DNA sequence: ACCTCCCGCCATGCT
DNA sequence: AGCATGGCGGGAGGT
């Protein structure tokens, strides 16, 4: 096989062990087997092996594994070692890692927990694939294989994949298969998440929570009501807030079925968690706050400790993966009380919408063929099949769904493409990692190893070649813009809407407001969630797609822009782009204003200023009726829309199909939206969950898929060779289309240049471990996206305006945060925040009472 | 003692 | 019925 194996990793760094590897690594299986014998004595066979062996993961197998299990790793190490040696020659690195082996190798026997950490595992996993894979190539990921290669249980792979899926870096293809998308879509995804987060008013929620905490600390006991109120609203009564998953363009659909299952989880949590970062001003989020928000209820604390603890556990899992992606890093916030662990966003700044640039929709040209698959996906998502009980749909819809599902299944079942093999070719972008270097050696090692081992990897090594990578990434920008213009057409599709509402369907798709150009996504809300939501400010107005969208987007953008501006210095992010006009008024919304900052303890920084903000925000919230709605699963309009629409519309499809772009817009989802607007505002949507989102589709369309794809292109893309079934092919095409087009077409977006992030510098502190962090950013393929938008962070500015205030103490603080004006600038105090954000360094805020500091420390 | 978070049991739901 | 997924929380390693 592939071989990649490389994996290796298990290195025990520490432990050292020897480094000698063997190489067996290659095929894990074989190796394993071989090894086992040897190892056998010492350790147990590991499960990995078993796994690797292929067995099916039957329970029995599990048992076996378990039994044997004990020390798989050891083996792995050995293997690794071997691998390394053989493969690479990078012993050095290894050495470094191992450094001291203490001599005992035995220790190695136990890899130490760290060696087994999800973060490390994730690095290994990521090392196998290029940041910006060539769409043309098939980038399939076979979970079993990966598990084997990495010598871990499959369960762990799921953890990683789920998080990656939430970022649309991978999408599920079929049963054991995922397709690697790398960072092509990342910016878009982040943009979408940001938009959703804003809509959900996470910033506000964060503030509230902080505020409460703060008060509590102090004794303020008051004010809860409002806050609680708000929160609840967000969550919905259920308490669960969200559960929806946001899908992006291109990626994902298939998951739908999967998603259906439990969407609650990791995938959704991951998205929400990311949203918190994107929305909050300092971009520092403590686990506690995140957990509370994710739980939905604020008071959770009181209620379920256990729940809270569980949530925290999961957040750590997610955080490890995100850290591996260099999107966040661990930091500590210091409060009076003490330090709290928190994570700081080190990823690219995003503009609200992804920027989409537009490229376009991805529609694949091929109409029918391509469409269908996508449709299916869309459909699924939209309607969750899963069945949740509720589900009721319009009969017609149901039929559609069924058919779709069946199709889907077929597809899934169908064998998929081979595995990763291609990777090698694909260029991996990894390359530019300057920062990485800084990062932990371990990581480096891993990478190296990988590289060496795998051909593709090599690329990385080479370097960064930014060039190569880029190719892939398409620069959407240009195109996108165009698209946007066109967007208007989208509206039509709305017609579809009616359908959506279908009452019960568990999930309702909502359209997000994408950012300006960005692609639109659909969110699926689950029924339960549905509840009230208030429309985001922007939304309320009419649904008109454009309008709404723009608004939101605008808002977001504006905010972002502001941030950028403010930050820009710091952060770097280029972005300023956003020229988008904002809508003047819009900004008011509070969304972010206060954002996170605030509250007490947790975020330190935030607190001070925040209070005021909080108050203000609160007020604002009240007014608004805050609603956060649950988030849903976002689906990229681009594809989906098109697809969805098609499916939904069925009849219409044809017409729509014609122009991809348009279609896209139309996405069914969108349709839904329309409804909302007016209604939304007010209230809840009873049955439907639909929330109001912004419907619009983004003119932009789209989808901009990361890559930029043009629809047309899609058709062309190369498909992987084998296509088992036509369906599959179609499916593939779609994906490809999405990706490929962009890739092919545009240059890569991000062109390397991007890297500029300051943060990279900051790296310093992070934890070493995994983090490494930021380095990646450069990668972000998307740079384009990012930059363009310029998202900055400025959230605060204007928004805050709302003065609510509750308690007084804040005044001083307030002043800090709030800046007078403009959005952009946060004023001084804010600066602090920014620091946090940007700099890793520490910022201190003075809050009236206390000062908070944020330190980025390394955790470990 | 607390922070992290690995491990894997077992529920869930698709096949 | 079997298997792929993945929720979940015990409990242990690290500090």
TrEMBL record:
<keyword id="KW-0539">Nucleus</keyword>
<feature type="compositionally biased region" description="Basic and acidic residues">
    <location>
        <begin position="584"/>
        <end position="599"/>
    </location>
</feature>
<dbReference type="GO" id="GO:0000978">
    <property type="term" value="F:RNA polymerase II cis-regulatory region sequence-specific DNA binding"/>
</dbReference>
<feature type="compositionally biased region" description="Basic and acidic residues">
    <location>
        <begin position="549"/>
        <end position="566"/>
    </location>
</feature>
<keyword id="KW-0805">Transcription regulation</keyword>
<dbReference type="GO" id="GO:0002040">
    <property type="term" value="P:sprouting angiogenesis"/>
</dbReference>
<dbReference type="GO" id="GO:0045935">
    <property type="term" value="P:positive regulation of nucleobase-containing compound metabolic process"/>
</dbReference>
<feature type="domain" description="E2F/DP family winged-helix DNA-binding">
    <location>
        <begin position="113"/>
        <end position="182"/>
    </location>
</feature>
<keyword id="KW-0238">DNA-binding</keyword>
<dbReference type="InterPro" id="IPR015633">
    <property type="entry name" value="E2F"/>
</dbReference>
<keyword id="KW-0678">Repressor</keyword>
<keyword id="KW-0010">Activator</keyword>
<feature type="domain" description="E2F/DP family winged-helix DNA-binding">
    <location>
        <begin position="261"/>
        <end position="347"/>
    </location>
</feature>
<dbReference type="InterPro" id="IPR036390">
    <property type="entry name" value="WH_DNA-bd_sf"/>
</dbReference>
<dbReference type="GO" id="GO:0010604">
    <property type="term" value="P:positive regulation of macromolecule metabolic process"/>
</dbReference>
<keyword id="KW-0804">Transcription</keyword>
<dbReference type="InterPro" id="IPR003316">
    <property type="entry name" value="E2F_WHTH_DNA-bd_dom"/>
</dbReference>
<dbReference type="GO" id="GO:0001217">
    <property type="term" value="F:DNA-binding transcription repressor activity"/>
</dbReference>
<feature type="region of interest" description="Disordered">
    <location>
        <begin position="408"/>
        <end position="432"/>
    </location>
</feature>
<comment type="similarity">
    <text>Belongs to the E2F/DP family.</text>
</comment>
<dbReference type="GO" id="GO:0000981">
    <property type="term" value="F:DNA-binding transcription factor activity, RNA polymerase II-specific"/>
</dbReference>
<dbReference type="GO" id="GO:0090575">
    <property type="term" value="C:RNA polymerase II transcription regulator complex"/>
</dbReference>
<protein>
    <recommendedName>
        <fullName>Transcription factor E2F8</fullName>
    </recommendedName>
</protein>
<feature type="region of interest" description="Disordered">
    <location>
        <begin position="532"/>
        <end position="608"/>
    </location>
</feature>
<keyword id="KW-0131">Cell cycle</keyword>
<feature type="region of interest" description="Disordered">
    <location>
        <begin position="37"/>
        <end position="57"/>
    </location>
</feature>
<dbReference type="Pfam" id="PF02319">
    <property type="entry name" value="WHD_E2F_TDP"/>
</dbReference>
<dbReference type="InterPro" id="IPR036388">
    <property type="entry name" value="WH-like_DNA-bd_sf"/>
</dbReference>
């Amino acid at each position: 096989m592939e071989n990649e194996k490389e994996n290796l990793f298990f290195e025990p760094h520490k432990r050292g062990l020897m480094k000698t590897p063997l190489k067996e690594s290659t095929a894990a299986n074989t190796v394993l087997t071989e090894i086992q014998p040897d190892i056998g004595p010492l350790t147990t066979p590991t499960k990995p092996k078993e796994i690797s062996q292929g067995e099916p993961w039957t329970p029995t197998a599990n048992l076996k594994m378990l039994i044997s299990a004990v020390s798989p790793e050891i083996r792995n190490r050995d293997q690794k070692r071997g691998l390394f040696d053989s493969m690479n020659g990078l012993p050095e690195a290894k050495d470094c890692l191992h450094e001291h082996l203490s001599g005992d190798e035995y220790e190695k026997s136990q890899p130490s927990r760290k060696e087994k950490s999800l973060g490390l595992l994730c690095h290994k996993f990521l090392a196998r694939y290029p940041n910006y894979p060539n769409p043309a190539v098939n980038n399939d990921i076979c979970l079993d294989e990966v598990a084997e290669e990495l010598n871990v249980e499959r369960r762990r792979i799921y953890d990683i994949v789920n998080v990656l899926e939430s970022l649309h870096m991978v999408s599920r293809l079929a049963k054991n298969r995922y397709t690697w998308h790398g960072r092509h879509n990342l910016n878009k995804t982040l943009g979408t998440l940001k938009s959703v987060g804003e809509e959900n008013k996470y910033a506000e929620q964060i503030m509230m929570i902080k505020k409460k905490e703060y008060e509590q600390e102090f004794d303020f006991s008051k004010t809860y009501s409002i806050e609680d109120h708000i929160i609840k609203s967000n969550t919905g009564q259920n308490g669960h807030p969200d559960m929806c998953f946001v899908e992006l363009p291109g990626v994902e659909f298939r998951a739908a079925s999967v998603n259906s299952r439990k969407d609650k989880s990791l995938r959704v949590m991951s998205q929400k968690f990311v949203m918190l970062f994107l929305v909050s001003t300092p971009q520092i989020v403590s686990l506690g706050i995140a957990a509370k928000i994710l739980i939905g209820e604020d008071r959770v604390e009181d209620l379920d400790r256990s729940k809270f603890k569980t949530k925290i556990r999961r957040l750590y899992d997610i955080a490890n993966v995100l850290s591996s992606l260099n999107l966040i890093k661990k930091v500590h916030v210091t409060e009076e009380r003490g330090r709290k662990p928190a994570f700081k966003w080190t990823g690219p700044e995003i503009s609200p919408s992804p920027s989409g640039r537009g490229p376009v929709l991805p529609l694949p040209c091929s109409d029918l063929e391509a469409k269908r698959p996508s449709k299916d996906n869309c459909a699924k998502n939209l309607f969750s099949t899963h069945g949740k009980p509720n589900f009721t749909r319009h009969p017609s819809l149901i039929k559609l769904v069924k058919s779709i599902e069946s199709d889907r299944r077929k597809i899934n079942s169908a064998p998929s493409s081979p595995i990763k093999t291609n990777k090698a070719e694909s260029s991996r972008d990894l390359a530019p990692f300057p920062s990485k270097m800084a990062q932990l050696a371990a990581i480096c090692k891993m990478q190296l190893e990988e590289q060496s081992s795998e051909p593709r990897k090599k690329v990385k090594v080479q370097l960064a070649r930014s060039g190569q990578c880029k190719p892939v990434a398409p620069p959407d920008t240009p195109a996108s813009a165009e698209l946007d213009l066109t967007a208007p057409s989208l509206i039509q599709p709305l017609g579809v809407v009616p359908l959506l509402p279908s009452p019960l369907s568990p999930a309702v798709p909502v359209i997000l407001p994408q950012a300006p150009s960005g692609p639109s996504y659909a969110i699926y809300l689950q029924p339960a969630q549905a509840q009230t939501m208030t429309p985001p400010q922007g939304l309320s107005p009419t649904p008109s797609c454009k309008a709404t969208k723009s608004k939101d987007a605008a808002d977001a953008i504006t905010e972002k822009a502001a941030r950028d501006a403010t930050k820009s210095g710091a952060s770097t992010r280029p972005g300023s782009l956003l020229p988008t006009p904002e809508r003047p008024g819009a900004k008011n919304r509070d969304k972010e204003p206060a954002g996170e900052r605030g509250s007490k303890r947790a975020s330190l920084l935030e607190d001070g200023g925040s209070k005021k903000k909080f108050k203000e925000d609160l007020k604002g919230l009240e007014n608004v009726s805050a609603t956060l709605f649950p988030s849903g699963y976002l689906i990229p309009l681009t594809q989906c829309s098109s697809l969805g629409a098609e499916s939904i519309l069925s009849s219409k499809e044809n017409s729509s199909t014609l122009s991809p772009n348009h279609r896209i817009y139309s996405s069914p989802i969108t349709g839904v939206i329309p409804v909302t607007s007016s209604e939304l505002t007010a209230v809840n949507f009873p049955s439907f969950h639909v929330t109001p989102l912004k419907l619009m589709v983004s003119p932009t369309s789209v989808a901009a898929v990361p890559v930029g794809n043009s629809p047309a292109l899609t058709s062309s893309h190369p498909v992987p060779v084998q296509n088992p079934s036509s369906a599959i092919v179609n499916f593939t095409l779609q994906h490809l289309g999405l990706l490929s087009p962009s890739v092919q077409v545009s240059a890569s977006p991000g062109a390397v240049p991007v890297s500029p992030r300051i943060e990279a510098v900051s790296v310093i502190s992070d934890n070493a471990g995994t983090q490494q962090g930021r380095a990646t950013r450069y990668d972000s393929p998307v740079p384009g996206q990012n930059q363009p938008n310029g998202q900055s962070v400025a959230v605060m500015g204007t928004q805050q305006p709302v003065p609510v205030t509750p308690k007084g103490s804040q005044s001083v603080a307030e002043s800090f945060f709030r800046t007078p004006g403009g959005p952009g600038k946060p004023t001084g105090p804010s600066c602090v925040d920014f620091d946090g954000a940007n700099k890793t360094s520490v910022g201190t805020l003075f809050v009236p009472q206390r000062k908070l500091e944020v330190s980025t420390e390394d955790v470990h």
